[in-house]
Structure formats: C-alpha cells, structure tokens
Amino acid sequence: MLFVTQSSRVLPCAVEVNSSLVIPNDHDETIPRNKCASLIRMVCSFRRYLWLRSNHQLISKNWQPKIFKMSASVISRELSLKQKCLEIFRTAINSVLPQNIIKNNISMEGNRLLIKNQSFPIHNNVHVAGFGKAVMGMAAAVEQILGDHLVQGVISVPLGIQKVLRLAGKEEMLLRPQTKIQVQEGAQHNLPDDNALKAAKRIHHLAEGLTENDLLLVLISGGGSALLPAPIPPVTLEEKLYLTKQLASKGATIQELNTVRKSLSLLKGGGLARAAYPAQVVSLILSDIIGDNLEFIASGPTLPNLQSKEDSCKILSKYNLVSSMPENVKEVLSQPSTRMHQEEIQDYAHVFNFIVGSNAIALEEAKCKSESLGYITSILSTGVSGDVTTVARLFSLLIRYVCSVLAVHGSQCAQASSLKDEMLQIIGSLQLPDFRLDSCLELLENALSSGKPLCLLAGGETTVQLRGRGKGGRNQEMALRVAVELHQAKSMTPHDPFAKHEIVFLSGGTDGQDGPTEAAGGFAYTEMVENAFREGLNVEDFLNNNDSFTFFSKFNKGADLIMTGLTSTNVMDVQAIIIQPKET
What are phi and psi of 343, to 5 degrees? Predict the structure, then answer.
C-alpha cells in the first residue's frame, strides 16, 4: 500500500493529496468527547463519506496519481550492515533453488522444449530420471512445465526428504498427488544402500526401454553418486563400498575415487546415456563442485568415460589394494577394456548436458543484489578451497589491505604493499588460479574516485582440521577465525586500522546446514572478539575445540548465526565482505 501525509498523519492512499484540500479528521474537535467509541467511529466514517461524495469532482480534478518509491540508497541506509550482507546471501541462495533453476532455464513453446539456447521437439514422449539432494524440487518444477508431455519418471532422493519438505511448508517442491514420477528415497547418511540400489535399477530399466522417438530428461545434483549405485555384476554393493572406503582411507583423491567407481558401475561414467541410446538424452545439472567438472558430478552418468579399467588397476596398485580386492572386483576389472576413441566419444551426440545451477551463477546474482544496494562489487573467486585457517587469513589480509589503501588514498604505501605480497603467497600456496586479486585493486581505484562502499564476493568449499570434539562447521569456523585475525591486527598496531570503516564478513553454506548444526554460517566484524571477552567468552578456546556453533549460540544471544533452514539446494559456500566508510 502507498502512503500520503496530511496534517502529520499518515493516510493509506495511492495518490498525493493536493494541499488546498482538507479531509475531515477522525478526531475532529466538533465530535463530542463523551460519546462511546463505536458511535464516534460511526459518525466519523459517515462524515468522511458525505465529504468525499460532495467533493468527488474537485478531488478527481486536483488529485494526481503519484507513486512513491524508495530509492535503493534509501533502502540501503535503513538496513544494517549485517542485514545487507544477509540480503546478498539470500539472493545467492534464491537464484539456485531447485524450482528457480528449472523455471529460469526451461520453458515450453508449443511442442518444443526450450532449454537455454537449445530447442527440442517433444510430443508426449518425455521420460524423467533424477538423482541427487536437490532433485525433488527440480522434478516438481519439471512436472509442472511438461504437463501431458511427461510419460513417466523415476527419481532417487535422500531418505526422509518428502517429510522434511512437507513439515517445512515447501509444498511447491513436492510432486502432484497424481504424479507420473516414482519417488524412491534412500542413501541414508549420504551412503549408498539397498533403497538407492532399487532406485538405480528402476532408472536403468526405464532407460533401456526407450526408443529413438523418446527424450530422457535427466536431473542431477550433488549427492547423486550415492543415490545411483549400480555395480556391474557380479560385484555387490557391499564390495564396491568396501573398496571405495579403503581407497579413501589411503588418501586417494576424488579423481582417483571417481575413476574406480566408474569402472565398476553400470550407470556412472556415461552408462546411463549408453543405456538410453538411441533416445535423446538431456541432462540438467546443479553443480556442487569447484570448477563444475561434469565428470565429478554424480560420477558423470551422461558423459563419456575417458578412463579405462587399466587406469583403475593402476590406482589400486598405487595404494597397495590389489591383493585385498574382492574376487568379484578382480573379475570385472580383468575384463578387456580400452580407452575410448574419438569415434566412440562422438556416439554421445544424442546427449546434451546443461549446467543450470552453480556457485558462479549464485555469485552473479549476489553481485547484482549488492550493486542494487549501492555497493561497488567484485567476484574474487568461485573456487576458494583449502584449510579454513589459511583461507580466513587470506580474507582478513584482504580486509586490512582494502582499509589501508582507502585510508591513505593509494596502494603505494609500505603496509599495503606488504599485505599484498602475503596475499599473493597464500593464493599461490592454496592453488587458487581464479582468485582475481587484480579485480579487487581496480575496484579500489573506483571506490577512491567515487567514494562508494565496497562488497567483495567469493565462493567455494574449504576444509577443517578437527582437533576438538565441539560442534561447528567450516563456515562458522571461518567467520570466527576472520574475527580473531581482525582483532589481532588491531592489537598489533598503535592506530586502529579499521577506525574509519564499518566492516562485516559473512560465510554461509547455500544448503542451509553448516556441518552438523542448525546454522548455515556466521558473521564476523572487528569488535566481535573484544565484545566476546566482555561476555566472558574466550574465542581461542572455542576454536581449539572446533566449537564455533557453541560460541555463536552463546555470544550476542545468537544474533551472529546465519539461520536459513534447509534450502534444498547446494552450490557450496558463499563469502561476502562489506566495507564502507563510517558516518561522521
């Protein structure tokens, strides 16, 4: 509703009042004060009605419709720094919610299915297969768009997801009562199990029954690998799990684990696309890995496998696991296999893979939101990884660098140069080739000339070295470590390096659950550690016990925890830094 003012009172109306008109006041002094409240309201309403009726021509002549809109700068001033940061984070999540990534990328035009820049003719011939943590919502949106073109479908989703969504009031992420899509829940604790195996068998059966007249729409998100277990007979699910656990315990990389998984699977490593041939296969993928390498998302069920069984044998030999391999695994791996040739890769011409959601997409939307709030904004990286302690150090150095440059109006001071050198060393040690520090420097020049505040964005997924038995997550720990770094920077210098600026740091998981906690992440700011001391909380003690959630729950009445609830999506984590001059 729009508002206008008259005699310092606010009246609900969609037009601006002409100053020459006077509307009777509900509390006009001519109304007797000794009347009861109901009589007063009735008389006032009747007088207002008579006045409007007698003056309607004058009103229509003099009143001009005028929409009152608050500018972005006004909205921005009314929000606290933490609220702005949270708005930016929520925008990132909203852009990659399952229903939104489907509706933003898929539409119908007559009997043609439009996906990004591609068009696929359909006519009541679309079959759906899906597996992953976000697939429930993706399938619900797809079902709504396809209508009668949908013939059948099978999706494999986490155990209990439908109940969770229903209790959360997210009915839009559930299938219709008379749905044509079968739902199989499984993979408890994100591990393949018999229920996930049943779902994979149903998906395999669906794919094998398709013809050249059909289109298979495949929905894939993080967690899809555990929800699509289909070991090549005679290998059992237990044997495959045993082998991958052994590899993981020996320190095998995700690439090595993936290679072995694919060589033992009917559906991974392009197996699903092969099973569906000659039907057209279209995959819609929500990426939850750094770099968006499709081979590693659910182990690439719709991509050609570029590794061979010989590669798997070399990996098992590297970790001294050949002798302890189950006999059935030895049998499958001993079967002849060669690397795919170019002509075999071309056999996948019937397959189209689309990334419809990713960390990069989320950060781009966050950038747009930040700019609408009046910030000069830059995306530093979508691939932040490594130990959380080192990454927190990098972000704190970045904050110090920005503040020092803004304070002296240039990047040539000795302190700024020293901070930059240390940042470059950390970026190199963490192997972050896409970390765009130069874009931050350009942003600073813009900020110096315009006087506008800054927002720096990044994303990725870090790791935490467990030393204690506390409760926390990588995002909360990062926020707390950034707070400690900023506090130490203030303690080491005679002059407060942040005195002229307001600073807020946010780190949050887009899935809404940071580790085994109810929070998505946390905030950090320059005064946090000293304020915690005043509340009798020693931040270092909580960090040493990996107990960041307990700290944030106790400190400031939990106000610095980010609580979004489960979002039913996941494109890893988002970090946001807001730096703006203090009002003088």
Answer: -65, -30
Phi/psi at 442 (5° precision): -65, -40
Instruction: Say which residues have a Cβ less than 8 Å from residue 469's Cβ, sequence separation at least 6.
Output: 545, 546
Using CB atoms within 10 A of its CB, is residue 164 exposed (0-12), middle (13-18) or buried (19+)?
middle
DSSP-based three-state secondary structure for 216: strand
Do 170 and 204 meet the contact criterion of CB atoms below 8 Å apart? Answer: no
What's the pLDDT tens digit per position in 220-234? 999 899 999 999 999
Minimal CA–CA distance to 222: which of 167, 162, 168, 286?
A: 286
Tokens of 438: 């130069």
Dihedral of alpha carbons 5, 10, 15, 18, sign: negative
Residue 522: in which H helix or E strand, if any?
A: strand 521-524
Helix (H) or strand (E) holding 328: helix 327-334
DSSP secondary structure letter of residue 124: S
Q: Where are the beta strands (DSSP E) in 105-173?
A: 106-109, 112-115, 118-121, 126-131, 150-158
* DSSP state letters, 446-513: HHHHH---EEEEEEEEEE----S-----HHHHHHHHHHHHHHHHHHHSSS-TTTTEEEEEEEEETTS-
Q: Which of 266, 249, 257 is nearest to 201 (CA)?
A: 266
What is the DSSP-derived secondary structure letter of residue 397?
A: H
**Long-range interactions of 436-442: CB distance < 8 A, separation 24+:** 436/378, 436/379, 436/380, 436/381, 437/380, 439/378, 439/379, 439/380, 440/378, 440/380, 440/398, 440/402, 441/411, 442/378
Q: Given this model, what pLDDT does residue 306 score?
A: 87
Spatial separation of the C-alpha atoms in residues 550 and 272, rounded to whole Å:
44
Residue 351 identity (one-letter amino acid): V
| DSSP strands (E only) in 59-202 | 64-65, 106-109, 112-115, 118-121, 126-131, 150-158, 181-186
Is the model's pTM score more than 0.85?
Answer: no
How many Å apart are CA 556 and CA 472, to the nearest integer?
Answer: 17
pLDDT digits (tens, 9 = 90+) for 320-354: 999 999 999 999 999 876 554 555 565 788 999 99
Alpha-carbon distance of 218 to 240, in angstroms, equals: 24
Identify the sign of the CA torsion 380, 382, 385, 388: positive
- The amino acid present at 148, given as its one-letter code, is D
